[in-house]
Amino acid sequence: MIRFALRGMLGRKLRTALTAIGVVLGVALVSGTFVLTDSISSAFDSIFSENYKNTDAAITGKSAFELSQDTPGVAPPFAESLLPTVQGLPEVEAAGGAVAGEAQLIGRDGKAIVFGGAPNLGFSVDPELPQFNSLTLVGGAWPAAGEVVIDTKTAAEKGFKAGDTIGVQARGPIQRMRISGLVEFGAVSSIGGATLAGFDIPTAQKLFDKEGKLDQILLSGKDGVSEQQLLDSVRTVLPAGTQVRSAADQAAEDARGTSGFLDFFRTFLLVFGGVALFVGSFVIANSLSITIAQRTREFATLRTLGASRRQLLGTVVLEALVTGLLASVVGLFLGLGIATALFNIFDAVGLTLPNNGLEFRPRTVVVALLVGVLVTLVASLRPAVRATRVPPIAAVREGAQLPPGRFHRYRPLGAALLAVAGVALTVTGLFVEGASTTVVLVLLLIGVLMIFIGIALFSSRLVRPLAAVANPVARWSVIALSVLVWPLFSLPYWLLRRGVWGPGAGARRVGGFVLGAVLNPLLLLVVLAMAVRRRLSSWQPEWPAEFPGVIPERPATSIGGENSRRDPHRTSSTAAALMIGLALVTLVATLGAGIIKPFEDAVDRIFSGDYAIVAQNNFSPLPPTVATAVGDVPGVEAVSSVRGGQGRAFDETILITAVDTQAPQVLRFDWESGSQQVLGELGANGAIVDDEYATAHNLQLGSPITLQTVSGTNLALTVRGIFKPPAGGSPFGNVTISTTAFDATSPQPQNLYTFLSMSGGVTDANTQALNDALQSFPNAKAQTRDQFKDAQSDSVRSLLNVLYVLLALSVVVSLFGIVNTLVLTVFERTRELGMLRAIGLTRRQVKRMIRHESVITALIGAVIGIVLGLALAMLLAARLEEITFAVPSSQLVVFAVVAVLVGIFAAIWPARRAARLNPLEALQYE
Amino acid sequence: MEIGDVQDVPAVAVAKDLVRIYGEGDTAVHALRGVGVEIASGRLTAVMGPSGSGKSTLMHILAGLDKPTSGSVIIDGTEITTLGDDALTKLRRKHIGFIFQFFNLLPMLTARDNVLLPLTIAGEKPDDGFFDDLVARVGLADRLTHRPAELSGGQQQRVAIARALVSRPTVIFADEPTGNLDSKTSGEILELMRGSVDEYGQTTVMVTHDARAAAMADRVLFLADGQIVKETGRTSQHEILQIIDTLDLS
Question: Does the pTM exceed 0.90?
Answer without folding.
Answer: no
